[in-house]
Every structure is written in C-alpha cells, then in structure tokens.
Design goal:
single chain; about 350 residues; alpha/beta; Rossmann fold; 2 domains; 8 helices; 10 strands; elongated; binds S-adenosylmethionine
Length: about 350
C-alpha cells in the first residue's frame, strides 16, 4: 500500500522534529525539491517563507541548514536532489547553486553532479548585456560516497552528437542480440590484431565486417543504442597504436548512460495560475534513477505537489512539506488525482 502525505508548516521546524524521531531517521531514499529562488516572488505573507532574505548569504545559510537537517532522514544509500535557479543582481550572477553546494559538502554530503536542466522553450531576454538564461542546475548530492542508482531505468538511445546522421532505423534492420558467434574465428582475429604492428598494411587485417560477423552481428544491421551499423563498431585504425582497444565493442543494448545535460521543456502551468512548478518528466527521471518501487521520497518545498504526483505514478511513498495551506490542499488534490489515474489506467511503472 503506497502512502502520500503533505504536512503544512515551515520546512526547517518539521524536518527538525522528524529527525528527532528514530522511525523517520534513515527512512527516505531520496529528497528531491525546488526551493524558492532568491528574491524572485512572494508565495504568501508568512515570515517563515524562504527567498525573501536581506542577503544571498543569509538565504544560502537558511537553505543549507534545512538540507543538513535532512541528511539524517536519508537512508545510508540515499541522495539529495535540489533543482535550483540562480539570481542576478545588476549584471552579476550570485552563483547560488554552487555556493549552496559548498555548504552541503561541509555538512557531510558528497557532491555527485551539477546536472544542467536545459529548458529549450525558455523565454527570451531583452537585456542588452546578459545572455538569456536557459538552464537551471540540479544539484545531485549523496549522504555518503555512494548512493543507490538504477542506470538501466534511464538509459538513452541514439547518438545526440550526430542525431542528424544516425536516424532511427526500422526495427527489422536492428539487431539486439549476437547470433551464432564464431569462437575460432574470434581467436584468429584477436591473434592477428595482437601481432599487428603500427605499419601492418590494412589489407592484412580483418575487415570490420568480418569482425562484426565473427562476433555474431550482421555488419549491415543497426545497433539499437547508437544506431550505427555493426560494421562501424570495429575500428581498424586503432589497431597497432592501441592494442588494448577492444576490437569489437557493442553498445549496451539497453542504451547509453545519459549525459549530465538534460533537455526537458518547462511545464505548462496548471490552469492559468502563475506558479513555479517543475516538469514531471524531470522529476520522473530522478525518481526512476535513484529509487525503487515502494521507497520513501521527501520534498520539503512541495508547492503544488509535482514530486508527489510522480511518486503516485511510479508507486513510491511520498511525504511533502509546504508552508501555505492553499498549496497543501492543491498538492493533495493533484497527488490523489494522479494516484487514481494510475489505478484506473493500470499504468505499469
Ligand atoms: C519553487 S516552489 C516549489 C514548486 C514545486 N516543486 C512544484 O512543482 O509545485 C517553492 C515552494 O516552497 C514553499 N515555501 C517557501 N518557504 C517555505 C518554508 N519555510 N517551508 C515550507 N515551504 C516553503 C513555497 O510556498 C512554494 O510553494
């Protein structure tokens, strides 16, 4: 039975009392959130609201205190993901994400990555001096050196760098598994390559198609990961100079590791409301990568509940914290609607 809960109140107060409860400590596989930007907008009138501090230093200190209080709540293999934008004052950027990251490292976290969330549909800027801001940082930190990850759940196909050339081939032209490997031929090929010198003429080396065939791949068929023909997976040029180089390297048929630049369009707002929600696709990628079904996920700045919505679809337990009662009600509504939709559609996550 999956559970969803949104508590109303100040994040720090609630997190602090949760961390005093032994049943809550070490419970959450991930904490994932987007705190308010510094000096961007008011969500209400409560004096506890984050983002309205007099200086960036105070803002960063407050956030650091909240996220350091979260650390005890994470499982030993848990991770913290903070989607955070920067702020400009005059022409200068304040570098808020990275200044916060330094504080969190001091607080015991391991800094794993600063993923760029690239917003292709970002609004243009009319500034004469500054470039238009088209990304936000997603800070990825782990409680300890390593954290739980499931790379297979977020692998990608295709060669982004050469998308124009590597078109998606028709399914009958793709080959997923090797068929009838020729072990003797592989041994012979390996020997020839091992004995090759940098000046061995190409004609004396096996062709790339021969190599692919020996390894059980049709040289004219396509790899389901990079969309290159298999005859392109063996490279003769490196033979001699780089003997250690694998003579035939097939890609992982489940796809490549995604890069740390994620292109995800910003989300249209619910109805006409003006509210900084993050897109479900961005959060789903993190939830799939860093948790398993049935895990607990925490969002200390829940807003309208996007993290909870994704958890409802992906069958993760969710606890949210949000300062304003209006947002709490909306978040609960949105999460319950998603949970009902999943059950009605029997979505298989
Ligand atoms: C950027 S929004 C989060 C939006 C959310 N990711 C979503 O998709 O709906 C930040 C939220 O933090 C809330 N907030 C600000 N200060 C808070 C505090 N001290 N404790 C709890 N929530 C707070 C705001 O009310 C706002 O809803």
């Amino acid at each position: 039975m999956i559970s969803y809960q949104v508590l109303q109140g100040d994040s720090y107060d609630i997190l602090h009392s949760l961390s005093e409860n032994p049943e809550q400590r070490g419970k959450y596989r991930i904490i994932i959130t987007s705190p308010p930007y510094f000096l961007h907008r008011h969500y209400g009138q409560d004096l506890h609201e984050i983002g309205q501090e007099k200086t960036a230093v105070i803002f960063i200190e407050k956030l650091a205190k909240i996220f350091i209080a979260c650390r005890d709540l994470l499982t030993e293999d848990g991770s913290l993901w903070i989607v955070i934008g920067d702020t400009r004052r005059k022409s200068g950027k304040l570098m808020i994400p990275h200044r916060l990251a330094f504080k969190l490292i001091d607080g015991g976290y391991t800094f794993r990555d600063d993923v760029i969330w690239y917003k292709k549909n970002s609004v243009s800027s009319s500034s004469k001096y500054n470039l238009a801001q088209a990304y936000e940082i997603v800070l990825f930190l782990s409680k300890n050196e390593r954290s739980f990850t499931n790379m297979n759940s977020i692998r990608v196909s295709g060669n982004e760098a050469r998308d124009g050339r590597n078109k998606v081939p028709s399914s009958d032209m793709m080959q997923f598994e090797p068929l009838a490997q020729d072990k003797e031929k592989i041994t012979r090929i390996r020997q020839i390559i091992h004995d090759a010198k940098h000046n061995t003429p190409f004609e004396e080396l096996p062709t790339t198609s021969e190599i692919a065939r020996a390894y059980g791949y049709d040289p004219e068929k396509y790899c389901p990961t990079c969309y290159r023909k298999f005859k392109r997976h063996a490279t003769r040029k490196r033979i001699g100079d780089h003997k250690h180089y694998p003579i035939f390297a097939v890609c992982n048929p489940q796809g490549k590791n995604p890069t740390n630049v994620w292109e995800v369009p910003t989300k249209a707002h619910y109805g006409n409301e003006h509210f900084a929600i993050f897109p479900e696709d961005l959060i789903a990628r993190i939830v799939k990568f860093a948790t398993e079904k049935g895990d607990w996920v925490l969002d200390p700045f829940t807003g309208r509940g996007t993290t909870g919505i994704v958890c409802a679809y992906l069958e993760r337990n969710f606890l949210g914290i949000e300062l304003y009662s209006e947002n709490v009600s909306k978040a609960r509504e949105n999460i319950m609607a998603a949970a009902k939709e999943r059950i009605a559609l029997k979505i298989d996550s």
